[in-house]
Design brief:
CATH class of the largest domain: Alpha Beta
Strand content: 5-15%
Number of strands: 11
Largest sheet: 7 strands, mixed
CATH architecture of the largest domain: 3-Layer(aba) Sandwich
Helix content: 40-55%
Strand order of the largest sheet: 1-7-6-5-4-2-3
Mean pLDDT: 96
CATH topology of the largest domain: Aspartate Aminotransferase, domain 2
Structural class: alpha/beta
Low-confidence stretches: none
Order of helices and strands: HHHHHEHEHEHEHEEHEHHHEEHEEH
Distance between the termini: 63 Å
Number of helices: 15
Radius of gyration: 24 Å
Number of domains: 2
CATH superfamily of the largest domain: Type I PLP-dependent aspartate aminotransferase-like (Major domain)
Length: about 475
């Protein structure tokens, strides 16, 4: 086969954007070879590449090219120069933030979706393909123990899911008079909650941050008091957003108690399960998330708990018709609406969309629910194992034990007599561990305390990486305290 990867786009016809079948096959093989080699070397790549890249970014600025370039130099630039200058998020040692995934079947699905380029905005355009997405949403519904009448939407992430949930709650309880509406969430809630509220017309002065307890969980007594105070002031409390696993410490709010309060107050209860909800797919772990199936709506991030590529979010709404009522619309150029089958445009804000459900469908079809459950359960077991050992390291103080698969701690010692000194030492501990290259840690600041975090949620993270994490934390803590 000739080396057509060295050729730019066909020049015989200046208006043509086509490639020949031979060229496409050769280019595809080149991309596949580089991608598979990259995946095969993940365990040897540093957990965090050199991201001090301001000079590189300045050098990358360029005018739009007038003529096309060959593929191979572009692959060389991407894989050799640019991709390494980033966090190695798909690597087994990525224990930072909330890890994303990237199981290989999803990559195959994205290639199929992008090359076949079918339109799934309305059911009539691709009915069989949209049905696959409907199947995916039903699988998520069943894993979360939501009722048959629930429906949902695939989004690009948790932010979009939360936004659409707030729209549902706003429409049900406020109607057109939205200014008096008040939304409540924990002081540990994700920042996207406030952003989504603002986009939905619920501005900052109508969002209440409820204090958390010693385990970083929303205090229901404080929530009840805040609701009562706002009602007395003539405002209209309409929604509570609780967390099934916070980003800072992995805390799970008392979901049952919040559900009870919302029922009594006639308010919408949304659960942000972007990080933690998929642990509910494992039956033996469901007690950790007691009350989650009672939520009126639920944010999910399959790019976390299902180990899919970034940009895969989802929303479930207990009353599917509430979601449809927010988004249902028609126009003279659209087909007549039908009610038998799921229609994405009637449950979400987008009309033009790709095929996000294929990556979820193909991953589950190829891997199976049983393997998913085993992988999810393993991540929590690894986190518990590592937390128990790190807690025994001299100078380490545990701030948050793993309710799911995330735990947080800080460094103390005789010479660390101020909070500033303890914060600096804890930050140094994470930096030194990450610099060793095997695992990457990131921290958070809570009430003036800087905490180190370990989050186990990469499907590639196994016992070997956690043993390395414990060893490196032990070594670097000893160094910093002597």
């Amino acid at each position: 086969m000739s080396d057509t990867t060295a050729l730019p786009y066909p020049a015989a016809d200046a208006a043509s954007l086509e490639f020949s079948p031979e060229q496409m096959l050769t280019m595809g093989e080149a991309v596949l070879a580089r991608s598979v080699a990259h995946l095969g070397s993940l365990d040897r790549q540093p957990s965090c590449g050199d991201v001090d890249a301001a000079d590189l970014c300045r050098a990358l600025r360029e005018p739009c090219p007038e003529h096309g370039a060959a593929l191979e130099p572009l692959l060389d630039q991407l894989f050799d120069e640019l991709i390494p200058r980033s966090f190695t998020t798909p690597g087994p040692g990525y224990l930072a933030y909330i890890p994303g995934g990237g199981v290989y079947p999803a990559a195959l699905a994205d290639f199929i979706a992008n090359t076949t380029n079918r339109y799934t905005g309305v059911w009539q355009a691709s009915p069989a393909l949209v049905q696959l997405e409907a199947n995916v949403l039903e699988w998520l519904r069943d894993w979360m123990s939501f009722p048959d009448g629930a429906s949902g939407l695939l989004t690009t992430g948790g932010s979009g899911a939360t936004f659409n949930a707030i729209l549902c709650a706003r429409e049900r309880y406020l109607g057109t008079d939205i200014r008096p509406g008040v939304l409540y969430t924990s002081d540990q809630g994700h920042h996207s909650i406030e952003k989504a509220a603002k986009l939905a017309g619920i501005f900052h002065d109508r969002v209440r941050l409820i204090p958390s307890d010693a385990q970083f969980r929303m205090r229901v007594d404080s929530l009840a008091a805040a609701i009562a105070a706002d009602r007395a002031a003539g405002l209209r409390p309409f929604m509570v957003v609780s967390s099934a696993g916070t980003t800072n410490t992995g805390a799970v709010d008392p979901l049952d108690a919040v559900a009870d309060l919302c029922r009594a107050e006639v308010m919408w209860h949304h659960v942000d399960g972007a990080y933690g909800a998929f642990f509910h797919a494992v039956p033996e772990l469901r007690p950790l998330l007691a009350g989650l199936p009672r939520a009126d709506s639920l944010t999910l991030d399959p790019h976390k708990g299902m180990f899919l590529p970034y940009g895969t979010g989802a929303l479930l709404v207990r009353d599917g018709e509430a979601l449809r009522a927010v988004h249902s619309a028609t126009a003279g150029y659209l087909p007549a609406q039908q009610l038998e089958f799921y229609d994405p445009s009637q449950y979400g804000p987008e009309l033009s969309r790709g095929f996000p459900g294929l990556r979820v469908w193909m991953a589950v079809k190829m891997l199976g629910a049983a393997r998913y459950r085993a992988a999810i359960a393993e991540k929590r077991a690894l986190a518990v194992w590592a937390a128990e050992r790190i807690a025994q390291v001299p100078g380490i103080v545990m701030d948050a034990w793993p309710q799911l698969s995330l735990f947080a701690f800080h460094l103390e010692g005789p010479r660390l007599t101020t909070q500033e000194a303890r914060n600096a030492a804890t930050a140094a501990l994470m930096e030194r561990v990450t610099r060793r290259g095997r695992v990457m840690l990131t921290g958070c600041t809570v009430d003036g305390r800087h905490l180190a975090r370990v989050c186990v949620l990469s499907f590639r993270t196994r016992r070997e990486e956690m043993e390395a994490c414990v060893m490196h934390v032990t070594d670097e803590a000893r160094t910093l305290l002597t």
